[in-house]
Amino acid sequence: MALKSADVPPAQQAGRESVQTPAKPEEQELARKRDEQEALEADLADRELRSANLRAELGAFERRYLHFVGSRYAELDEWKAQLAERLAREQPANERAQHAAREARARADETKSAAGEKAAQEPRAFVSSPEMKRLYREVAKRVHPDLTSDRNDRAKRQQLMAEANQAYERGDETRLAKILTAYEHSPEAVEGEGAGAELVRVIRRVSQARGRLAEIEAEMQGLLRSDLYQLKSRVDEAEKSGRDVLKGMIEKVDEQIALAKQRLQNPQSNAR
User: Fold this and answer.
1) Nearest alpha-carbon partner for 23 in 211, 199, 173
2) Are 220 and 250 members of one domain?
3) Is 216 inside any structural domain?
4) Is residue 236 part of a domain?
5) Which of the residue ranges 114-123, 147-156, 162-171 would you say has the lowest mean pLDDT?
6) pLDDT tens-place string over residues 23-82
7) Based on the domain organization, do 77 and 104 belong to the same domain?
8) Which pLDDT band holds residue 229 (cuts at 50, 70, 90)?
9) Which residues of 226-244 are buried (b: 16+ CB within 10 A; e: fewer)?
């Protein structure tokens, strides 16, 4: 005869109530992956901050350098180009003089562009390769925001389509392919409910975080190896010793500009 709950001693009732159903394997793995995701995302946030800080510092230094030094180099190269072009006009049969003038003008245009001034170059026409068109069609077919009714997924698709349009205008095939792959492998692309589907989504988030960490590391290594970073490091070290490297560079370029002006205004000074 089955016992009613009222007939079961309180101690046994408490024991029965404390028994829990063991978690399913996918639920256990989901818990572990969520912990991994949380740790990776915290690390990712820290590295994103360090990367953003490094880019901001280099950007500020570059603007400072271009303002005080780069503009002077652009002016110096312009004076040198004018000197070379005058010598080329005076010696039309001298091929070396003609070549030197062309090189000097190209260098002047290059430094002028680097200093933030508009170079005299014809804008390139937009040309789309067959592969570019194929990639864009694939992105539009799979990522277009009108193809979903989910609000969150739609917002993600709108962002990716905007990026795809920009990449197409730039002719950036690599970026288009990356957009397509990123969406197809994204957590949002996983359908279904329950621990199994959520586990796949978390695994993809973990993969995304690891991929972004690798990208940040590569970006930072590139910045740390750049000429701009090396120059900034040299300037920073000098400032600790009370020396102003940029000021010294400015004075040196100003002397060269004055000499170039003198040579252009006084042809006799070119005689050796």
Assistant:
1) 199
2) no
3) yes
4) no
5) 114-123
6) 788 888 888 888 888 888 888 878 888 887 888 888 888 888 888 888 888 888 888 888
7) yes
8) very high
9) eeebebbeebeeeeeeeee
Does position 122 have pLDDT exceeding 50, yes or no? no
CA atoms 4, 8, 12, 18: torsion sign? positive
Q: Which two tokens stand for residue 272?
A: 């050796």
Residue 9 located in a structural domain: no
Q: Is residue 148 in a domain?
A: yes
- Number of neighbours of residue 50 by Cβ within 10 angstroms: 11
Predicted confidence (pLDDT) at residue 7 exceeds the cutoff of 70? no
* Angstrom distance (rounded) from CA 108 to CA 119: 9
Residues 113 and 247 grouped into a single domain: yes
User: How far apart are alpha carbons 14 and 18 in whole angstroms?
Assistant: 6
The number of distinct structural domains making up the chain is: 2
Structural domain range at position 141: 130-227
Say if residues 49 and 216 touch (Cβ distance below 8 Å): no
**Structure tokens given for 123:** 């804008």
